[in-house]
Write the structure tokens for this entry.
Amino acid sequence: MKKYFVLIVLFITIESIAQDKMEFFPDDLNVQPFTANTLEPKLGFLFQLTKNELRLDIGNSVDVLRCQLGGNENISFGADLFTYTLLRGENDFHFPVDAVDYLFGVNGTYKKNIDNDEYGVRVRISHISAHFVDGHYDGVNGTWRDGLNPRVYSREFIEAIPYYKINSVRVYAGFTYLFHVDPAFIGKDNYQIGFDYFAKNILSESITPFLGYDLKIANIDEYTANHSVSAGIKFGKPNGKGLSLYLNYYSGKSIHGEYFDFNKEYSAFGINLDL
């Protein structure tokens, strides 16, 4: 009887979902990436202005399944797969890879529109691991650069970021819990707040200035503040495909796991393809 009861409940659930609008692999994301947040899907470069370093991002987030719950509510389930890489520039167009971080996981989002306002939440469960690469090795002297040997860094975490959007301004606050992390002394709770703004239909429908700020309070051996500011112009659909040119300022702990306890401060010029 228990088996039949479970099957009946499952059938009713599937039937109720099927009555709503379902879409596999929609063209856009139900909840757009948070502009100044450092862990978002990107496909492009970030060139530091005062130091010979650059960041290469190759990654994407996709909604695998989206369900419309009535006329103004949507939920989605998707996946994330990123690499973000630290490189150096050298002569003859050489870019040795110093360090690389991998992120993969799953996500779920909820969004509801009310007139010109919108609110929702994104939840991610992800894994990150970090590694030094051959560009960090000094082959002439047979040592790792700056005396920094590779070390184990990985974390598995759950992240929740609820938000509220009024016209073109979106504000958000987030909480991240690391349910496993190496090294083990790293704190397991992180907090963040931020906003982003896309000035739609000011220059044209396909040229959109934007601004974003993100403050992340990371718990390493103590709580530390990480600031990220991004401002630029997006060519293309404001909430869809396009090309973004922007300036970024970052101050705080390095986002690269092999340098997780190093302080970084830089200004950079970014190029990003939004696919």
User: Anything to note?
Assistant: The longest strand covers residues 97-114.
